[in-house]
Amino acid sequence: MQLYHHPYSLDSQKVRLTLEENGIDYTSYRVNPITGKNMEPSFFRLNPSAKLPVFQNGSHIIFDTIDIMQYIERIAVFTLGSENVTLSSQEVIEWMQRIQAWDPKYFTLFHIPEKYRFTVSKFIRRVVIARMAESPDLAGSYHLKLDEVYETEDKLRDPDVLKQSKEQLAEILDEVERKLNESTYLAGDEFTMADVMLIPVLARIVLLDLEEEYICSRPNIAEYWNLVQQRPSYKKVIGNYFSGWRKYKTLLKTWCFVRVRSMLKRY
Ligand SMILES: N[C@@H](CCC(=O)N[C@@H](CS)C(=O)NCC(=O)O)C(=O)O
């Protein structure tokens, strides 16, 4: 089994947490979307949307995050036995869908200083054009990707987009806060895939320095956040890249790559 993913990608984090929590072994391929590695023809042919994560098991390829998570659960039941692992209940699936419906893209980009955002966006446009020149047979899909970059830039000029994203996030967190009044985890007293879905969202809030507004103001979530950060899966998938000083190392590496390549015009 192969997973194409990146530590920056929230959906990749969800899938990697699922793999770790279920103890499933896999071959990991890191594809950094900020340096445009998802535009490389080898990956782009496999997945012309260029989005992460992509999960492959033989000829079976899955792109949708919830589908991947459920597939991994079925593998876990098959290999570990149904007495050790169970498939997600309807309640868990509903939480997963509710959390997955919130798209972190604009929320994240809005909270990144314009200088960084603009440099990365311009760099990605150049990368797409360079890859398109190398593989003209993929021009149609590369053009769609370019349109997407321009559309993203446009939407970032619209304050309503941020407002809606913030409201949707706050609504989900309010509901989570109420639920955590009754149980330790999101769907009861056992850790489930609903929690796997939520953890990367909380980690993203912290990464963007918005902990006060979204987490500390909700005491049950604040307590829950302290608890889930103790899990080995969290440490491996998120903590290793983003806890404390590590986040500067992780982000600086990508930023330097983009700056140097932009200066040398090497896309
Ligand atoms: N297929 C995913 C969506 C994946 C997605 O939006 N991935 C983002 C990162 S979390 C991405 O790869 N962005 C890079 C790009 O769009 O070029 C789903 O379950 O809906």
TrEMBL record:
Any GO molecular function: glutathione transferase activity
Entries under InterPro entries matching the protein: Glutathione-S-Trfase_C-like, Glutathione-S-Trfase_C_sf, Glutathione_S-Trfase, Glutathione_S-Trfase_N, TCHQD, Thioredoxin-like_sf
Signal peptide residues on this chain, from the entry's feature table: none
Pfam families cross-referenced by the UniProt entry: GST_C_2, GST_N_2
CDD domains named in the record: GST_N_family
Residue ranges occupied by any GST N-terminal domain in the UniProt entry: 1-80
Domain of life, per lineage: Eukaryota
Entries under PROSITE patterns matching the protein: GST_CTER, GST_NTER
Residues of the GST C-terminal domain: 125-251
Designated name of the protein: Glutathione S-transferase TCHQD
Provenance organism: Vitis vinifera
